[in-house]
Write a structure and sequence with these properties.
The structure is a single chain. The protein has 69 residues and is an alpha+beta fold. The chain has 1 helix and 3 strands; from the N terminus they run βββα. Strands 1-2-3 form a 3-stranded antiparallel β-sheet, covered by helices on one side. The chain is elongated.
Length: 69
């Protein structure tokens, strides 16, 4: 399981929880429940990494907790 920081918040506009992996640009998922958003972001992180590998792009090393958040 990747060890990237995940930020989760509720979006009234979307009517769901949003999960973001800020170290991976554009890596976001949603879910109707908190648990569903977590489950979905792990799928998207794996897909983000697989796509980056296919395209020969750099994959950031997980840094863990961001100090400025």
């Amino acid at each position: 399981m990747p060890k990237y920081e995940i930020i989760i918040y509720w979006s009234d506009e979307d009517g769901s929880f949003i999960a973001e992996a800020p170290e991976l640009p554009g890596c976001m998922a949603d879910g109707k429940t908190y648990e569903e958003a977590i489950k979905n972001i792990y799928v998207i992180i794996d897909e983000w990494i697989a796509t980056a590998k296919e395209l020969g792009r750099d994959i950031p090393v997980p840094k863990g907790r961001l100090m400025y958040a």
